[in-house]
Design brief:
The complex is a heterodimer of chains A (about 280) and B (about 280). By secondary structure, chain A is an all-alpha fold. Chain A is built from 10 helices and no strands. Chain B is mainly alpha-helical. Chain B has one domain. In chain B, helix 4 packs antiparallel against helix 9. Chain B starts with 10 loop residues before the first helix and ends with a helix. Classes of the chains: A mainly alpha (about 280), B mainly alpha (about 280).
């Protein structure tokens, strides 16, 4: 290609100028290469951060007060949105199943039909997305603000390791928060589903409960969802801490960091959801 | 709670009143927030009809909201399509080991709900966070005040183009997302459960009611994303920390709005078409 271009005479008006094609190819390859490099930088940064966090877990050097404060801020304060999300999600699952249930008169299977998807997929996934939006984004914003106002540098100047003091408690709190919130969401989504079934299809909550526990659903379905929630917790924790610490450029930079964090978390959650669904039966 | 109260009150009742006042404060906050959100919505609609037209702004926003989300949406919805069909196959295998209707049910569910709702949830994180971060930075760097100084309503300048662009691009992207999710699902069905693509491509269960519901959802979510996140961005205060807070609130509130709208539209559609 390049040989052909250079052999042409550079006459004006006769097709695109020879330099133009090369230049366009250059910018295209430059853009692709730049995207790959920035992706590699993000992945590498997350990997290094994860390694540092794990290194500080053996032996555990956890600031108890910081952990407790973060758990309160992340878990207790997220309860309202988790409750609302879970109740509505359970209701939506039943509404979506309703036409099928009505057509086949399969009222006795409603609990199983709604419970399977809720426990294995929807409750962990939507809880993770909401926690990523509330806790992960908030964490990035907080760390990002600390970085741009040079508070992290101040910690370093005081010989306090930012990873031990800031990242480790946040990391653990996010993982614990998501695990506990998924348990809550499982219960509440089933509750929402049961009462929507009563309102919409006249299925008594008792028969809904019987169909959940009749044997088609096992503890395996619950643990499957909980394994997912732990994996999602790791994703959210690492991506929010990484993007928070990598913030540059004042107030707009914090906004960009939060945006990048939620996008990376969502992508990571979906890709790992797929992997976990296949690996854990 | 109790240490904030005057010492003249008794302990048990002060605990009670503390909780009641906390509940009341939350309720008042919610009502005020809802009213302001409503006002932003109404003013946006007003300016859509009566506002100024500027060439290029809409196209630029459509590019920002639409084209830049395509890659993200393709990856997430592709993964989601694979997961959903895989889980549905496992679920079906427990009662009737028959995958004939897998594709038909999946396609109907995709059109009626999943493509629009999950695709828009993804868009809410990307687009909503982006809108709130951008407008929030404008607020803390006083660019929005500068707009007001020039007698220009920030809603007309900032929200209306995003509102129109989001309604158009959400619909377009949801169609693309549904397409990607269906193809990914067909591939999963073929490799995991040996369902031939000819069997999987089965549109027998899809009715016009499903299309109407899906389309209504696209429009509603497309309108909700810029309104809610734009409101969160405009109510930013307090420097870089404020921008972070605004972005967080935008993601959470937009996602909640989508879930709640989904509940109402799905119930309405069930009552209208099936009830």
């Amino acid at each position: 290609m390049a040989v052909q271009v250079s052999s042409q005479s550079p006459g004006p008006g006769a097709g695109p100028a020879p330099g133009a094609i090369a230049k366009r190819a250059e910018t295209l390859f430059g853009a692709v290469g730049g995207a790959v490099l920035s992706l590699a930088e993000t992945a590498g940064g997350m990997g290094v951060l994860f390694g540092r966090v794990v290194a500080r877990l053996f032996p555990p050097q956890i600031d108890r007060n910081e952990l407790r404060r973060n758990l309160y801020k992340m878990a207790v304060k997220s309860l309202p949105i988790v409750i609302v999300t879970a109740l509505f999600t359970g209701a939506i699952m039943v509404i979506q199943a309703a036409p099928l249930v009505k057509r086949f008169n399969a009222e006795g299977l409603l609990g199983w039909a709604a419970g399977f998807g809720t426990l294995r997929e929807i409750a962990p996934l939507l809880t993770a997305l909401m926690i990523s939006g509330r806790v992960g984004a908030n964490n990035t914003a907080e760390l990002g603000t600390m970085v741009v106002t040079e508070q992290v540098d101040a910690l370093r100047a005081l010989a306090i390791d930012p990873v031990t003091f800031l990242i480790l408690p946040r990391f653990l709190s996010i993982v614990i928060t998501l695990f506990v919130m998924t348990l809550y969401a499982d219960i509440l989504a089933l509750l929402g589903a049961a009462y929507t079934g009563l309102a919409l299809l006249k299925v008594e909550p008792v028969s809904f409960y019987n169909s959940v526990t009749a044997g088609l659903l096992g503890i395996g379905d619950v643990t499957n969802g909980l394994v997912k929630s732990v994996v999602f917790g790791f994703v959210i924790a690492i991506s929010s801490c990484h993007f928070g610490l990598a913030t540059t450029g004042g107030a707009p930079g914090v906004g960009r960091a939060v945006n990048a964090c939620v996008v990376a978390s969502a992508t990571g959650i979906f890709l790992l959801d797929y992997l976990v669904s296949f690996i854990v039966k | 709670m109790s240490e904030e109260l005057t010492p003249t009150q008794e302990a048990p009742s002060s605990f009670f009143w503390g909780n009641v006042s906390a509940l009341g404060a939350t309720a008042i906050e919610l009502v005020v927030g809802a009213r302001e959100l409503y006002s932003v919505f109404v003013r946006t609609l007003y300016y859509v009809v009566r506002g100024r037209r500027e060439k290029g702004v809409l196209l630029r926003q459509m590019y920002e909201i639409g084209n830049k989300s395509v890659f993200f949406l393709t990856v997430t919805m592709g993964a989601l399509g694979m997961i959903l069909v895989y889980q549905a196959g496992l679920q079906a295998a427990r009662v009737v080991p028959d995958y004939q209707m897998l594709g038909a049910t999946y396609l109907q569910l995709l059109i009626r709900d999943l493509a629009a709702s999950l695709g828009s949830l993804m868009l809410a994180t990307r687009v909503g966070a982006g809108i709130a971060a951008e407008i929030g930075s404008m607020v803390v760097t006083e660019q929005v005040d500068a707009l007001r100084m020039c007698a220009a309503d920030p809603i007309d300048f900032l929200i209306v183009p995003r509102f129109l662009a989001s309604m158009i691009m959400t619909t377009v992207l949801v169609i693309w997302a549904g397409f990607v999710a269906f193809l990914a699902g067909a591939a999963t069905a073929y490799f995991a459960f040996d369902v031939m693509p000819q069997t999987f491509f089965n549109a027998r269960m899809v009715t016009s009611a499903d299309f109407a519901t899906g389309f209504a959802k696209c429009i509603a979510y497309g309108a909700a994303i810029p309104i809610v996140s734009g409101y969160c961005g405009l109510s930013t205060f307090g420097g870089s920390e404020g921008v972070g807070w605004a972005t967080t609130r935008a993601v959470v509130n937009t996602s909640l709005a989508i879930i709640i709208l989904n509940f109402f539209i799905s119930s309405a559609s069930f009552v209208i078409f099936a009830g």
